[in-house]
TrEMBL record:
Signal peptide residue numbers: none
Gene3D superfamilies per UniProt: ACP-like, NAD(P)-binding Rossmann-like Domain
Name this polypeptide is given: Male sterility NAD-binding
The entry's keywords: Phosphopantetheine, Phosphoprotein
SUPFAM superfamilies documented for this protein: Acetyl-CoA synthetase-like, NAD(P)-binding Rossmann-fold domains
Residues covered by the Thioester reductase (TE) domain: 390-629
Gene Ontology biological-process entries: secondary metabolite biosynthetic process
C-alpha cells in the first residue's frame, strides 16, 4: 500500500500534487499550477528561515486551478495559514508542520511553535492533552488536562507527584531546542478542572483558541501571581545609591534574583552573556525604574530597556544610574568603548591597514606590513565575467541583490558566504522562482563561513581559489540590534578586517562594497546636510550598531589610503519593502521586526498613531528592489566606478532624494489600521508615553513596541531631522532620481504584504 499526503480546504479545494517517493510519503510535492508562494514564518535579516506559510497568489496562467479566487473574486492572495518545512536535500519536497494560528507570540516579539512540546507532553501516560500558554506574555507556560480528572481536585499547586519527573524530562528535551525566550517555565503550569474539559473539534482534536478562552481568567491570574517583578523583595526594592560600589552590588544581587537559577555573578559580568534574556531585561528595567522613582520622587529617573542593553554589566549600569548629569538613556561608556574597540581592531594583524589615530602600533607591526599593495590593477571583469562575493545573501537587502545579480549578463559567478548551511541557504532562491534561469551562465555557490575567523572560516584552498577569481565583494552581513552596546559587534568588525585582508591580496584587486548605515550620522549637529565623504567622530553616531558601522568605514578608509584597497561605502538609509510587480507574484516583504512595522503593530494595540516621528519625520525611505538594482549597477556598469588613483574610496548617501513628511501618510495609516474607525492621532511624546505605560497594565505587556521603546524615545527627544546630501549618488546612479517619493500605493502594498490591510 502506498501512502500519499493530500491537502485541501473548503475555500481552495484540493491542491494539485505530484506523487512523492514512497520513502518520503509524509512530504508534499506541489504542482506549479497552484500558484504557491512560500512566505517565511520566522523572517529575520540575519537568520535563514526554515519554515514557510503556503500562500496562494492569483495568476492568469493558474486560473483553472485556483478555485479560491472564484470564491473570493476580490482577493489576489490567499493565506492558507498552513506552515511547511522544506526537505533538507530533495528540491520541492515540503513537510507539513502546523497551522500558523497555533503560533505563540510573546511580548518580546519572539515566536514559538508549540506543537512539538505539546505532543511530547501529551504522550506522557496520565496526561490527556496539553496546550502552551503565554501569548502576549514574557514567557511560556502550559495548560494540562489529566486523564484522571480527580487529580485536579487535590493538586491545585501543580502536577501530581508521579507525573512531575516525566513532565520535567519531556519539557527539558524541548527546551534544549528552543530559544531562551521560548523555554517552558515550570512555575507556569495550570491544571484543567474536571467540569471544564478541553474543547474539541468534531475530529477530536483540541480547539486551541476556544480552550484558551475558557481558561483566560485563570491564565491571567497565573501570570500575575508569578510575575517576577511583583515577587516579594522586588516590588518594594530599595537601591543603595550612596555610592557607585554599593549600587553595583545591589544590582548584581537583583539580577541574580531575577535569573533565579543559582547564578553567581560579579559586577563586571555581562548579564546577557550569562543568560539574561529580553524578558528579564524588561523586568530589570521596570523594577529599577520603579525603585528610582519611589526613592527620588522624580518620574524622569525611570530607565528604559535600552539603557539595560547598552550597560550590560551591573557596574556599567550603576555608573549610568549615578551620573545624574546625563539624561536617561545616554550611555556613559559610548565614547570610551568606541575608542577601545577601534584600538583592539588595530591589534588584529592586517596587511597595510594602519589607523592613524593609533600610530603607536605602527612600529610594532611595521615589519609585517608591505609598503605597497600586491596588486594595483583595477578590478575589471575577467574574460569569463564578474565573480561577485556576497555576504549576507539570506538577509533582506542581500537576497534582493542576489536576485538582481542573477539577471545581469556580465556576472558569470556568485559566491555567497553565509553563517547557515550551504543547502539551507539555497532556500533564499525560492523567494524568487525562475530568476536562476534568467541568466543560464551564472554559477552560483553557497559557502559556510565565519568572517571573523582566519581565512574567513573557509578551507585554505577555497580561500585562495576565491582570491584568484573574485572581482567584487558585496558586504551585506551585519548583526542588527539597536539595543546592544558597541562591544557586541566586535566580531562584525573583525569580519570587515578579514575582507580587507582578502581584497588586498586578491588577484583582481577586488572592490569592496560596504553597506554602512545612516545610524553613523543620526546625531549630526551641523547646519549643512550630511556630506558624501569620510566622517570620523563617534559623536555623530547613534547606538552601538551605528558606532560599529563607523569603525568598519574607518578601517576601509585607512585600507584605501595605506594599501590601495578599492572601496565604496554606502550610508544606507531606511530600506523599505519591495514595490515592483514580479512575474511570479513573489516577494520577500519588509521584515516585521523592523521599527516601522513594529510601530504600526504597537499603534494598533494602543489604538492611536503618532502624528510625527520626531527626528525621523522626514520620509526618505528607498524600496529594497531599488537598492538591489543600484548595487548591481555599481558592480556591472563600468561607468559608475571611476578609476581615480588619488581617491579610491567613494562615500554615497543612499536615501531617497524625493522626500515627504510622516504626517503626509498618517491619514492613510490611521484609516487602514483602524478596525471600525480611524486610529486616534496623538503627539509622538504622548504615543511614547502610552507605550511605556503599557508594560504595567495587565494584558498590555505584549505590545511589540516595547522591544524598541528606547529607539522610539530617541525619536521623541529631538524634532530635528537629519538630511543627507545626495548630489554625488544621483550623478553616478541616474535610476535613483527616477524612483519617486513614498506614495499611498507603496504604503498600501506594504500593509498588504504584512497582512495589516
Amino acid at each position: 500500500m502506498r501512502l500519499f499526503v493530500g491537502l485541501g480546504s473548503t475555500e481552495c479545494g484540493s491542491l494539485i500534487q505530484y506523487p512523492t517517493d514512497p520513502a518520503h510519503w509524509n512530504y508534499c510535492h506541489f504542482h506549479a499550477s497552484n500558484g504557491i508562494h512560500w512566505r517565511p514564518v520566522f523572517e529575520s535579516s540575519e537568520e535563514q528561515p526554515t519554515e514557510y506559510e503556503l500562500v496562494l497568489h492569483r495568476h492568469n496562467s493558474c486560473k483553472p486551478y485556483q478555485g479560491v479566487f472564484e470564491n473570493f473574486p476580490d482577493l489576489d492572495e490567499w493565506s492558507t495559514k498552513d506552515v511547511f518545512r522544506k526537505h533538507p536535500s530533495i528540491p520541492d519536497y515540503w513537510e507539513y508542520r502546523y497551522r500558523i494560528d497555533d503560533l505563540v507570540v510573546f511580548s518580546t516579539g519572539e515566536k514559538m511553535n508549540p506543537i512539538p512540546v505539546e505532543s511530547r507532553v501529551s504522550g506522557i501516560p496520565g496526561i490527556k492533552a496539553a496546550l502552551v500558554i503565554g501569548n502576549k506574555q514574557l514567557r511560556p507556560g502550559m495548560l494540562i488536562e489529566l486523564d484522571d480528572p480527580d487529580h485536579s481536585l487535590s493538586y491545585d499547586s501543580g502536577l501530581p507527584f508521579e507525573l512531575q519527573g516525566p513532565f520535567k524530562e519531556a519539557v527539558g528535551i524541548e527546551n534544549d531546542q528552543n530559544s531562551r525566550d521560548a523555554q517552558i517555565d515550570e512555575e507556569l503550569i495550570l491544571i484543567a478542572v474536571p467540569d471544564r474539559a478541553f474543547i474539541r473539534t468534531p475530529k477530536g482534536t483540541v480547539n486551541r483558541n476556544k480552550t484558551l478562552e475558557l481558561y483566560k481568567a485563570e491564565i491571567n491570574d497565573l501570570y500575575r501571581s508569578t510575575d517576577p517583578s511583583n515577587a516579594k523583595g522586588l516590588n518594594d526594592l530599595s537601591l543603595d545609591m550612596t555610592s557607585q560600589d554599593s549600587l553595583a552590588s545591589d544590582l548584581t544581587r537583583l539580577v541574580e534574583k531575577i535569573m533565579a537559577n543559582d547564578s553567581e555573578l560579579d559586577e563586571q559580568t555581562d548579564i546577557f552573556a550569562a543568560g539574561f534574556d529580553s524578558g528579564q531585561a524588561q523586568i530589570l528595567a521596570a523594577v529599577v525604574g520603579k525603585a528610582l522613582v519611589r526613592q527620588t520622587g522624580q518620574p524622569e529617573r525611570n530607565i528604559t530597556v535600552d539603557a539595560v542593553y547598552r550597560n550590560p554589566t551591573p557596574r556599567k549600569l550603576a555608573k549610568f544610574l549615578t551620573a545624574s548629569q546625563n539624561p536617561p538613556g545616554h550611555d556613559l561608556e559610548e565614547t570610551s568603548e568606541f575608542q577601545e574597540v577601534l584600538q583592539r581592531s588595530a591589534l588584529i594583524p592586517m596587511l597595510n591597514v594602519i589607523l592613524v589615530v593609533y600610530a603607536k602600533w605602527v612600529t610594532r607591526y611595521s615589519k609585517t606590513i608591505p609598503d605597497t599593495p600586491a596588486n594595483l590593477e583595477p578590478n575589471v571583469s575577467t574574460n569569463s565575467g564578474h565573480h561577485v562575493l556576497v555576504t549576507g545573501s539570506t538577509g533582506f537587502v542581500g537576497s534582493h541583490t542576489l536576485r538582481s545579480l542573477l539577471r545581469r549578463q556580465v556576472v558569470s559567478q556568485i559566491t555567497c558566504l553565509n553563517r547557515s548551511g550551504a543547502n539551507e541557504s539555497k532556500v533564499c532562491l525560492q523567494r524568487f522562482p525562475g530568476d536562476e534561469s534568467k541568466n543560464h551562465s551564472v554559477q552560483l555557490n553557497f559557502k559556510v563561513a565565519d568572517l571573523s575567523e582566519p581565512f574567513l572560516g573557509l578551507s585554505e584552498k577555497t580561500y585562495y581559489d576565491l582570491q584568484d577569481n573574485v572581482t567584487h565583494i558585496l558586504h551585506c552581513q551585519w548583526a542588527v540590534d539597536f539595543n546592544r552596546p558597541l562591544t557586541h559587534f566586535e566580531s562584525n568588525i573583525k569580519g570587515i578586517v578579514g575582507l580587507i585582508q582578502f581584497a588586498h591580496a586578491s588577484k583582481h584587486n577586488s572592490q569592496v562594497i560596504f553597506l554602512s548605515s545612516i545610524a553613523t550620522v543620526r546625531n549630526w549637529k551641523e547646519d549643512r546636510d550630511v556630506p558624501e565623504e569620510t566622517l570620523r567622530s563617534p559623536e555623530t553616531t547613534e547606538t552601538g550598531y551605528g558606532e560599529s558601522k563607523l569603525i568598519a568605514s574607518l578601517l576601509l578608509d585607512q585600507s584605501v589610503n595605506s594599501a590601495g584597497v578599492r572601496s565604496t561605502i554606502f550610508r544606507l538609509g531606511q530600506v523599505a519593502g519591495p514595490i515592483e510587480e514580479w512575474p511570479e507574484g513573489q516577494h520577500m516583504s519588509w521584515p516585521r521586526r523592523d521599527w516601522f512595522p513594529t510601530l504600526l503593530e504597537a499603534s494598533v494595540q494602543l489604538d492611536c498613531l503618532p502624528e510625527t516621528l520626531g527626528s525621523g519625520n522626514q520620509i526618505d525611505w528607498i524600496p529594497v528592489d531599488t537598492v538591489a538594482e543600484l548595487l548591481s549597477d555599481l558592480i556591472c556598469s563600468p561607468r559608475v566606478y571611476e578609476r581615480d588613483n588619488s581617491t579610491n574610496i567613494r562615500y554615497y548617501n543612499l536615501v531617497n532624494p524625493h522626500q515627504i513628511q510622516f504626517s503626509d501618510i498618517v491619514p492613510l495609516l490611521a484609516q487602514r489600521l483602524g478596525s471600525s474607525e480611524p486610529l486616534e492621532v496623538v503627539s509622538l511624546r504622548d504615543w511614547v508615553h502610552r507605550l511605556s505605560q503599557s508594560i504595567d497594565k495587565p494584558g498590555s505587556r505584549s505590545n511589540p513596541g516595547l522591544r524598541l521603546l528606547g529607539f522610539f524615545q530617541g525619536l521623541a527627544r529631538s524634532e530635528k531631522a537629519v538630511t543627507l546630501d545626495t548630489t554625488m549618488i544621483e550623478e553616478r546612479f541616474p535610476r535613483l532620481g527616477q524612483v519617486g517619493a513614498v506614495s499611498d500605493r507603496w504604503i498600501s502594498l506594504w500593509l498588504e504584504q504584512w497582512g495589516m490591510a
